[in-house]
Write a structure and sequence with these properties.
Elements lengths: L13 E10 L6 E11 L4 E5 L6 H8 L7 E6 L2 E2 L5 H11 E4 L11 H11 L5 H11 L15 H13 L5 E5 L7 H18 L2 E5 L3 H4 L4 E6 L2 E7 L8
Parallel strand pairs: 3-8, 3-9, 6-7, 7-8
Antiparallel strand pairs: 1-2, 1-4, 4-5, 9-10
Helix pairs in contact: 3-4, 3-5, 4-5, 5-6
Length: about 240
């Protein structure tokens, strides 16, 4: 199995330098990202806010190597993505990035257990199903191992997606509006589950959300507008009682 380097201690897990993305359209080229530069450190929690169309989801795809920028430099886990072919990019992403989408993206013909085992099997684990069962147990679904996505509620499907995203221990978790398809009560429970798993693994988290209260659970809030980062704010440290 090919070994992939991690960043040196004290180095960013994600680094974007002057990243631009321009896509063609019938009306002419459209600039989606306009010179975005940022770093995400190992273990850091970052909320990404902004109106629809501001470039949040595209920026997340660029971080994951799912979208190649038109210009600029992207590094993930010590690797410069522009120099990787699609096979090496997929291997890097599979071992270093977990992703949770709003729409769950579970494979409907596979059970919850099989869905969670996929990243482990791709990584060559000899105990993929045992590890997947343990991961589902941690998100409260040990009684749903053999259920298919169509037999699960929306909240349960998102918990399966969370278990799948964390099961291989990636250093980076990207979450794009993970509660967008859920009611408020279910969404709050799912977010608590996501943050608990993040804390357990020490994973860096980049969370796209429209909810300012949810954003405040992250150490850092980035606000986007018109393809640019227009605000980078860190949550004040908690004061210790004297």
């Amino acid at each position: 199995m090919e070994m992939l380097d991690l960043p040196q201690p004290g180095s960013p897990l994600v680094a974007l330098d002057a990243v631009r993305l321009t896509l063609p359209s019938a009306a002419g080229p459209v600039e989606i990202l306009r010179g975005v530069s940022l770093t995400v450190m190992p273990g850091e929690t970052v909320a990404l806010l902004g109106p629809s169309g501001s470039g949040k989801s595209t920026l997340m795809l660029v971080m994951a190597g799912l979208e190649r920028p038109s210009a600029g430099r992207v590094e993930l886990a010590g690797q410069e993505l522009g120099g990787l072919d699609e096979d090496r990019l997929a291997r890097l992403r599979g071992r270093r990035v977990g992703i949770v989408f709003q729409a769950f993206h579970l494979i409907p013909t596979m059970t919850a257990l099989e869905n969670v085992a996929i990243p482990l099997e791709l990584a060559g684990s000899g105990n993929a199903f045992g590890e997947a069962a343990a991961a589902l147990g941690r998100v409260g679904l040990d009684h749903r191992l053999t259920h298919y996505p169509g037999q699960l509620s929306g909240g349960e499907q998102q918990r399966v997606a969370i278990a799948r995203a964390f099961v291989a221990g990636p250093p980076l978790l990207l979450a794009d509006e993970p509660t967008g398809n859920l009611d408020q009560t279910t969404g709050a429970s799912v977010i608590d589950c996501l943050f608990a798993e993040r804390e357990r693994h020490g994973t860096a988290l980049v969370l796209i959300t429209h909810d300012p209260d949810l954003a405040e659970r992250c150490e850092r809030q980035l606000r986007m507008a018109d393809g640019r980062i227009v605000e980078d704010r860190r949550r004040p440290p908690l004061r210790r009682a004297l």
